[in-house]
Design a protein that fits this description.
By secondary structure, the protein is mainly alpha-helical. It has 2 domains: about 1-35; about 35-234, no CATH class. It contains 10 helices and 3 strands, in the order αααβββααααααα. Strand 2 (about 75) and strand 3 form a beta hairpin. Bound molecules: zinc ion. Zinc ion (ZN) binds near residues 104, 108, 130 and 133.
């Protein structure tokens, strides 16, 4: 009889425990939206801001893939979706950095609206389209009020540097070449950005150190160009 009593208490105790857990879960429900979907909310908010500020006349759906092991984002040519992996989120210090990645992928999606022949072109000239997506992406993010320096900050932070980038060995150009092209583009088109506080960012500073030779050559070239122009003006 005692054994039965112990068994009864154990079973009853477990049931009671289960009830308590259920009640706790229900009481947590009002916080559901605080605990779930926060990263999605942020990604969709910044994405919608870019799409609307640019008055894009094409649909670009944005997805967040919760795989936290992949540090990347991509654009689907047939579906035009922009997918961003959870794993990349910790690498963003602010909305501007997230805006660059979204804008870059959106630029690919906009090109993908060109149809299957364009897709073949995009695959065969993938490096050219990467540079293009970087620069169009910068235009898109600036129009939405984001600082383009963030493009260099975040790309320098997590994008790898391949050994070579010619022919079919890689689909993407070397990140250092992409960073330099973005810098040159910002210098010419958005010079105000070079006077913002974001240039103090450690990852931007690191870019300036690692690309010192190329940046100096570009600045020298710009100086010569402007002095030549001044002479012509006189
Ligand atoms: Zn790309």
């Amino acid at each position: 009889m005692k054994k039965f009593l112990v068994l009864f208490i154990l079973l009853f105790g477990l049931t009671a425990q289960a009830d308590v857990m259920e009640v706790e879960q229900i009481s947590d429900m009002p916080h559901f939206w605080e605990q779930n979907g926060r990263p999605e909310q942020k990604v969709l908010e910044v994405g919608a801001k870019i799409i609307n500020a640019n008055k894009l006349d094409k649909r670009i759906p944005i997805n967040l893939d919760r795989n936290s092991k992949i540090i990347n984002a991509f654009s689907s040519m047939p579906r035009k979706t922009v997918t961003i992996y959870y794993g990349i989120l910790p690498y963003f210090d602010n909305d501007d950095e997230l805006a660059y990645v979204l804008s870059h992928e959106m630029a690919h999606s906009l090109d993908a609206y060109g149809g299957p022949f364009k897709w073949i072109k995009m695959v065969y000239n993938s490096k050219e389209y990467e540079f293009k997506a970087d620069l169009i992406g910068i235009d898109l993010m600036v129009k939405a009020g984001y600082n383009p320096i963030a493009a260099i900050c975040t790309a320098n932070k997590w994008m790898g540097e391949s050994y070579w980038d010619f022919w079919i060995f890689t689909t993407h150009p070397k990140t250092s070449r992409r960073l330099l092209k973005m810098y040159e583009y910002i210098y010419v088109k958005y010079p105000w950005a070079l006077k913002t506080d974001m240039v103090k960012n450690l990852n931007y500073q690191n870019f300036l150190y690692s690309s010192q030779k190329e940046v100096n050559a570009f600045l020298q070239h710009q100086k010569e160009r402007s002095s030549k122009q001044k002479t012509e003006d006189i």
